[in-house]
Amino acid sequence: MITLEDVRSARERIAGRVARTPLIPSETLSKRLGAQVYLKLELFQKTGSFKVRGAFNKVLSVPEDQRGKGLVAVSGGNHAQAVAYVGSKLGLKSVIVMPEKTPRNYIDATRGYGAETVLIPNIATAFEVVEQYKRDGWTPVHPFDDPLVIAGQGTLGLEIMEDLPDVTDVFVSIGGGGFIGGVSTAIKAINQSVRIWGVETEGADAMTKALEASHPVQLSAITSIARTLGAPSVSERTLAMAQMYLEKVILVSDAEAMAALQIILERAKVLAEPAASCTLAAAERLRERFRHFSVVVLVMCGGNVSIDDICRYKT
């Protein structure tokens, strides 16, 4: 577990290296949900997602003479670009182990930040590959199961509470659970009454299954279009944080996520990936719980989706 002090220390450590992203009201979504709705536009973060917050905090916490040959990570999505970017800014080599089916735009962006990419058959065996790199002297940066990574992600929660102290409900997507764990830690420490709602898509529902079983469950495959939610399982740590902080995890379909993506694009004029737009789909499921005075934040955690993928998803 981490504390509010861990999150505040992370913010000091990564200051000047990440953006403080906008939190904007949406009149359209407010009318739609019958509440005061805001979008936390983390898709405007460096590399297009929240992941750099945790990656910077992790790497900057490791003394320079202990970083070994460079950085190594597993990712088929946003964490890949974040670690590659951090490596490039800190003058470190980086190797990203990625599933062979990773979309081309993610691979190209990761390589564009200077990382070497190693493509393997599936995400499950990728962690075994990373262990070999670790034994060879590389510094691993876990996508979610690391207290330093989680604390870095939690800095987004501090921004929400400072910019919108009367917030009542926050919707956050779940992959491996580190992001929502960090955000929840910060928010709940400042105001225990804020309700935190987790969101997953069908086919990328590792936390839903873990909560039902009361222990992490390994998914046999990731079938959702929201690939950046595609952790093969959550961890004991992130499961415990979900059990402690979350009201509930809302499971939505890919079709709902895509419908929400279209609404956000047309009305808010921002292109969110399905792993982010699904928060609107979840909020719509809960609209009866809101009142006109409810203050709802939908975290747009990332925007790294290609136009080709959007067109394919819509057909």
CATH class type of the largest domain? Alpha Beta
Return Rg in Å. Answer: 18 Å
Low-confidence stretches: none
Strands of the widest sheet, in order across it, are 1-2-10-7-8-9
Order of helices and strands: HEHEHEHEHEHEHHEHEHHEHHEH
User: What count of domains describes the coordinates?
Assistant: 2
The CATH topology of the largest domain comes to Rossmann fold
> Roughly what is the average pLDDT, rounded to an integer?
95
Main structural class: alpha/beta
Enumerate how many helices there are, as a single number: 14
CATH architecture of the largest domain: 3-Layer(aba) Sandwich
How many DSSP-defined strands?
10
- Major sheet attributes: 6 strands, mixed
Shape: globular
> Which range does the strand content fall in?
15-25%
End-to-end separation in angstroms reads: 43 Å
Helical residues, percent:
40-55%
